[in-house]
Amino acid sequence: MSLASAVSVVTEFRIIAGDQSLDTPLIAVDLDVLQRNIAEMAALAASYGVALRPHAKTHKSPHIARMQLEAGAVGLTCAKLGEAEVLVDQAGVTDILIAYPIVGDIKIQRLLHLLERAHVTVAVDTHQAAAALSEAVAVNDRILDVYLEVNTGQDRAGARAGQEAVELAVTISRMPGLRLAGIMTHEGHAGFSDPDQIATVAENAGQALVDTAERIRRQGIEVAQVSVGSTPASWFTPRVPGITEMRPGTYVFHDNNAFRHGRIGPDRCAARVVSTVVSRPSGQPQSHRAVIDAGSKALAFDPSSSHPGHGYIVGHPGATIARLSEEHGVVTLSPDELGFDVGDQVEIIPNHICPAVNLTDELVIVQDGHVVDHWPVAARGKVR
Amino acid sequence: MSLASAVSVVTEFRIIAGDQSLDTPLIAVDLDVLQRNIAEMAALAASYGVALRPHAKTHKSPHIARMQLEAGAVGLTCAKLGEAEVLVDQAGVTDILIAYPIVGDIKIQRLLHLLERAHVTVAVDTHQAAAALSEAVAVNDRILDVYLEVNTGQDRAGARAGQEAVELAVTISRMPGLRLAGIMTHEGHAGFSDPDQIATVAENAGQALVDTAERIRRQGIEVAQVSVGSTPASWFTPRVPGITEMRPGTYVFHDNNAFRHGRIGPDRCAARVVSTVVSRPSGQPQSHRAVIDAGSKALAFDPSSSHPGHGYIVGHPGATIARLSEEHGVVTLSPDELGFDVGDQVEIIPNHICPAVNLTDELVIVQDGHVVDHWPVAARGKVR
């Protein structure tokens, strides 16, 4: 029986069934769950009639980028130029959005080189960054597609939805060498809102983006793409009429933040940090403490938006990863927790899977409980 | 004028003086400050009459390991076998302490291979881990030096100081193939205590370790090394009579947690994350916000023990790195902060430098304000 069929009856399972001989810590990925997650998001996008342009920041893997394209994605999204270079050169991605401002001469020169090998769209949200891109592109007789990044409530980057974004869109549309191919927002704040409020926050963000697109069009400027992106908001924002594209990232693996929100179960969390119990201090109150070899260098230090601790140990709801140092996870055990002997292996769903993947050089691919492959995290650490 | 001489009059300076052309984010290291930090800790250890065995987790760099040995270190410390393999093979380290339990057959086999190339001491803190090591070592006709790890208040790993540690030491001393070369503690909890309490907490930990060593000796067991380690406690624990060795790590670079405690100034923080302002959202209240290209993938998410925010922007005490996502640092600016225009570069002292170094593949070495070299972080990501 494949695990993919098992998940309908088993809500919580370890993806590495019996193999306790792996050298840990490592990140294991259940191939069937991964494929199911990819297929279902593709189906969701199709049901909304929007294009799917997944964010590669979660997996940083040419293998998984290709799986997403084969499932119907129109292209990929990434944050940094270095990630785009890897995806173009190693995954054969021909259409990529860098959803991040390109600032500085070195990056602009790298972008010009990348344009020779792929269709690249770049986010802009300031006059300064757009002007520098325009000058470099025009000098080189090229046209660069840009998305104007719009702040719909996250208050991170982006021109504010409404008048500010409209004015910047008009300015950009007049800059030589730049083509305003669309506008985008990252409604990541929806995922951090109260679970009852996700839908409302996401839809408000989507509507603000659509309204901004309409106002720009009234200035006689074409806005072909109206793009949103955030896994927790995927069931809400893209169904706002006028949205044309979605860019979820985390859905390929999901994580503790996702299932604690109740949208999906731990059985949908495809990536697990496999860790070994390395110490089990004795005596009271130490008997309720176990130390695992997954610290912040394996799990990352990202907080959970909804749960205490630094990840969920599958099958052990009474165990809390209470403290992390770099190489130690200090686990506090409830009185009814059995086991956790030195040498035992556990599987952990990290709070946030993306930075955990960024800490490892490879993904250990598992099917039906057994290791079947190793995939490099080729875009790991590409912060530039 | 070299920066090393300048630090006596300038308490806060940027290490990259004029070069705004670097592709960011990156970690820059001021070579003169690094050399001064290394020399001063070596002098401190000498003044106490204790051996210095620095922890390599901070730099993960064969270059810096060699500098520490040349300054008089008796050997290196590391957390993981993978780090030890790099230091032995790339830095020529011949004497190394793995201050972490070795658990699992794969790791034991790797350890046996490493023993052929270097003198390796391993921490043990459970009967199970010691027994497995003993069996493997004895079968191979070898002797393995071990340090018993003792918990002196950190409540992470380690047998509790006193009776529990004495009993485990007796047990280990009878195991074939193992030689109890010493006992060790990591008094890391001292650095997280109230600044006024660091000395007391550190000295209590050191005294508990010395007392435990004495009790073990009364059982007729030799305890040659009594080893402590923690940069914030370096000025206190090693001066407890009976301590023979110290293992500080962070001192080579120092970080925000260190200077916020008042022990050292930002001028002693040798490693900086150099970052570029990539967005400067306009309008109120957005005018007080800047976005930099150093997020949690450059700075790491470790909290500060004494200061809000995710690092200190050198020269900008009124700027707070209020929020991090993977590629964005959201900076909140006080009304008197000028500048922070798109394209500006800033230098950040991370809260915790060790995990930040673990996120980058190379250190950019700077002297007198100019880049002079690039050193690989060869033991980055060696979590196994």
Quick summary:
Chain A has about 375 residues and is α/β, with parallel strands linked by helices.
Helices and strands in order:
2 copies of one chain form a homodimer.
Chain A (H helix, E strand, L loop, with lengths): L2 H4 L19 E5 H18 L2 E2 L9 H9 L5 E3 L2 H11 L3 E4 L6 H11 L3 E6 L2 H13 L4 E8 L7 E2 L2 H11 L4 E7 L13 H20 L7 E4 L16 E2 L9 H5 L10 E9 L9 E4 L3 H4 L12 E2 L5 E6 L4 E5 L11 E5 L3 H5 L4 E6 L2 E7 L8
Parallel strand pairs in A: 1-17, 2-10, 3-4, 4-5, 5-6, 6-7, 6-8, 8-9, 9-10
Antiparallel strand pairs in A: 1-11, 11-12, 11-16, 12-15, 13-16, 14-15, 17-18
Helix pairs in contact in A: 3-4, 4-5, 5-6, 7-8
What can you tell me about this protein's structure?
The structure is a homodimer of 384-residue chains. By secondary structure, chain A is α/β, with parallel strands linked by helices. The first copy, chain A, has 2 domains: 3-28 and 256-376, D-serine dehydratase-like domain (Lyase, Ornithine Decarboxylase, Chain A, domain 1); 34-250, Alpha-Beta Barrel (TIM Barrel), CATH 3.20.20.10. In chain A, 29% of the residues lie in helices and 23% in strands. In chain A, the strands form 2 sheets. In chain A, strands 1, 11, 12, 13, 14, 15, 16, 17 and 18 form a 9-stranded mixed sheet that branches. In chain A, a hairpin with a 2-residue loop joins strand 17 (362-367) and strand 18. The interface between A and B is large, with 67 and 67 residues.
Count of extended strands of chain A:
18
Shape of chain A: elongated
User: Beta fraction of the residues of chain A?
Assistant: 15-25%
The H-level CATH homologous superfamily of the largest domain in chain A, spelled out, is Alanine racemase
What is the CATH first-level class name of the largest domain in chain A? Alpha Beta
Number of helices of chain A: 11
Q: Which fold name corresponds to the CATH topology of the largest domain in chain A? A: TIM Barrel
The largest sheet of chain A is:
9 strands, mixed
**What is the oligomeric state here?**
homodimer
**What structural category arises from helix and sheet content of chain A?**
alpha/beta
Number of domains of chain A: 2
